[in-house]
């Protein structure tokens, strides 16, 4: 038996008046997901434990079959692991976004989705000016970077607001706050004039694109204690395809191999054809493969209904279409990690619809795959990590 896990990041959401009261999932044409729902097991899963921030950190940890409570690792540390950053015991790793603020308003949590090449040039300018015995900046993908701070363990106890929670809202009291926050606020202040003088930003403004005006640190984490390797806990050789550091970091911590597939990105330009073909080919060498696709979440954060629907349809066509055509015994799990409702442009921790399909998995209680159809089945898995148990059950 082979296994495929497809994570449609942020694909679930709320009904929209623009779609006649339907969600993006309901409005999308998803013949493969619908077929899986008719012939498999459809239900809801609680991937985000009560009291946890509804981010992919906890939610994707659950999907991989781990307990995000007992295996908690701050997201900054997970993304640091993806980048090969080894944290000392007195260091805190934070995610650091390049953002665009104007008049105290968060105009873009992603600096207009600055390219990786541009972003790394900006990061180099910040590194040259601000790196010292306390701060080290590591460039990541697009607007996402990692800031490592030495000697300030109190940073894990501060209050943070992810910038994608502030889209088109005032940043006001949402900067890092609490005892010891001044060290980060000073870093943010010192970064601002460097960004203002950046040639990259001058070129972006000339091209009619948003500049990176500020840095925004959040999601702190310390050196992880270690997760039980997936091969040890499940007895399966596993691999993952993802365009984001968070998922790649979870793979590192869980001992899951990372696949390099050209064209797989963190955004709406993802090559779904290449990712679908790549993960199916990887099943020749692995027992279980995870395909994580970020684009529905990016569209949700951007409030782009059409882009979110297009991303869901592309995953259904290019990834799940290939899975259902697989010549052999294959079980498939498809699900979002969390909801990213268009209306609020950020995550919520409500249960997500999951569907299991393949040999030994049957239900037939639904005609389509959606949030409403999943709720109507009455199948509810809490905690969400147990969905992996259902997928692998003999």
Oligomeric state = single chain
Q: Give helix % range.
A: 25-40%
Helix and strand element order: EHHEHHEEHEEHHEHEHEHEHHEEHEH
By DSSP, the count of extended strands is 13
* Distance separating the two termini: 10 Å
Give the CATH class of the largest domain: Alpha Beta
Looking at the overall shape, the CATH architecture of the largest domain is 3-Layer(aba) Sandwich
Number of helices, counting only DSSP H or I runs of 4 residues or more: 14
What is the CATH superfamily of the largest domain? Answer: Alkaline Phosphatase, subunit A
Which range does the strand content fall in?
A: 15-25%
Description:
The chain is α/β, with parallel strands linked by helices. It folds into 2 domains: 2-73 and 226-392, Alkaline Phosphatase, subunit A (3-Layer(aba) Sandwich); 85-221, no CATH class. Helix content is 34%, strand content 19%. The protein is built from 14 helices and 13 strands. It has helices at residues 24-27, 31-39, 56-63, 75-82, 116-130, 182-196, 199-206, 230-234, 245-253, 272-282, 295-301, 305-324, 371-376, 386-392, and strands at residues 2-8, 41-45, 91-102, 105-108, 135-139, 144-150, 214-221, 238-241, 257-258, 288-293, 330-335, 352-357, 380-381. The relative contact order is 0.24.
